[in-house]
Amino acid sequence: xxxxxxxxxxxxxxxxxxGDVIVLLHGFCGSSGYWEQVIPYLSGSYRVIAxxxxxxxxxxxxxxxxxxxQMADDVLSLLNALEIPECYLLGHSLGxxxxxxxxxxxxxxxxxxxxxxxxxxxxxxxxxxxxxxxxSTIQNDGITTFVDGLVPGLFAPAAAPQLLQRAKEIGYxxxxxxxxxxALAMRERPDRRDVISATALPVLxxxxxxDGLIPAEWTFTSDKPNVTKATISGAGHMSMYEAPERxxxxxxxxxxAQVKK
Length: 261
Description:
The protein has 11 helices and 8 strands. It has helices at about 40, 70-80, 95-105, 125-140, 145-150, 160-170, 175-185, 195-200, 215-220, 240, 245-260, and strands at about 1-5, 10-15, 20-25, 45-50, 85-90, 110-115, 205-210, 225-230. An 8-stranded mixed sheet has the order 1-2-4-3-5-6-7-8. Helix 2 (about 70-80) packs across helix 3 (about 95-105), helix 4 crosses helix 5 (about 145-150) and helix 4 (about 125-140) runs antiparallel to helix 7. It is globular, with a radius of gyration of 17 Å.
């Protein structure tokens, strides 16, 4: 892992392959490790950059609430530091919320963007209350207890136990203050469905047929011709583990379609 300084915060990242740049943003209580089965498929054809988001992995985890815009600006700082003028930005879950913020405010830096098991909808009032309960659990019971409760709901019921265990191992390494800060960021995010419906950029939307957190209809919020939609059968919220080859094919086909235009 390498690192750059982003507005006073160290952001660590992996950087593999050559060619058009694909930046992969992981989900809540994950890390760049979430992409460990996808990167080998992609890095033979593209330069793949996967950061540990603020508050996750081995990146810095400042105290206090974060914002989705702040986390998107970390990605902008990373691109600037690496002198990357344009990229394809794809975000899983929390990473998708960050992707939408980036696309809304820094569209000129993108060749295209995508959501993987994510949505442009904001949190419902019920979900906002659950975020506060998550913060309370993290602070009072610890990150291990929180992750043990979180991870099973991310996978389809038939997922192999070793996949859940790997996601837990990554989650246990999330600094508690980072998990709390990111939970509060998700709680306060705005409705960004209009970013998808208004953009002229190519958009990729990926849903898991068995995703119990974000159903396909929450992901597929636009039918515009520049939007590519894909549903992965048998996958829950974690297709990067449940169906890494299929997810990688979808991403490669999406990027290749833009290159051919």
